[in-house]
Automatic annotation (TrEMBL):
GO molecular function list: phosphoprotein phosphatase activity
Listed name of the protein: Tyrosine specific protein phosphatases domain-containing protein
Family matches, as Gene3D superfamilies: Protein tyrosine phosphatase superfamily (3.90.190.10)
Signal peptide limits: none
InterPro entries per record: Prot-tyrosine_phosphatase-like (IPR029021), Tyr/Ser_Pase_IphP-type (IPR026893), Tyr_Pase_AS (IPR016130)
Pfam families cross-referenced by the UniProt entry: Y_phosphatase3 (PF13350)
Amino acid sequence: MNHASIIRRDCGRVLSSQSPRKGLRLGTYIRIKRSLATSSSLVMPNNQAEPSTTWQDRSIAMEGTLNMRDLGSLRTNDGRYIVRNRLFRSANLAQITNSDMETLARLGIKTVVDLRGPKEALDHPDRVPAGTTIIPSPIIGSDTGDAIDDTTIRALVLDAGLPETMLNVAKVSQYGPYYRMLFLVNSYGTEIHTSKLTKYSLFFRSLLDLAPNESLLVHCTGGRDRTGMGIALLLKALGVFQKDIEADFVASNHALQPDREDPNSTAFLQSHSANVFLQPPANKYYQQVAKELGASPESIRNAVKLKADLLRRTFASIDARYGSFLWFLESQLGVGPEELNILRPKLLTEIK
């Protein structure tokens, strides 16, 4: 890992779909669906007509990873902006090139928060420039004792309107972590999902400890669900407009498609960050895989596509469980008024 210092910590017990044989039961899934039904009608207010910037404007081209962008220039409700070149998000860094490492060094990224589980990080360790601190902060992981069982997989697949051919665990899993994505998409805003948001406390602590002249990057495997949720919590804490929070969240639907305009491309296969299920349905390889699995590429992808309503459900669930988002920050993440008074000046500016 090229002289990177690694902060080791107890990883705890978290959630994964890597082993479908045991773990989360059907009763858990039923409670999830009931919670979604009651929370989906609670919509967060939106006081901004148009996003203040696009994800394409903030995107950073990398040779060995995807979904990397700067959070800088997003506007807050008090008229300030997130500082440019201070906070980044991406997919994992296991396959980045030497040129990519030069980019990380040029951007001043000295801290990398890795939200992957321990086995994911061990199997595909990050490559980072010398002097970079990697902070393991697992949200879910395959070696922590929990898993999605076959009964839950069946309920998830059939509830999504997918055919029973999508229940072939060995065949589906060879093309990407589809069941994990399907579970996560169905868990947003539920009690089990909301209770696990406390795991982002180390991410916030890393930001509070960030030196003024240094930058931080946070990632998981694809930089999608786990990274997207952590960034959404941070942006809300900073007062970023809801529409901007949602736009950045759903941008991963496109940012994980390296060749969106070329239906014949198989370039995405070179990166384990971009599994086939996230590619455009028009992609010829995706169509072949979908045919093999007995489903349409549109139905497969739509079942795991990120939508703004997933965040709205989550924020509504936080309010219902903790009374307010600010109390959630203070009581569960250790970010009270004093910490916000440190965090906001560090990450915000009046200059776009």
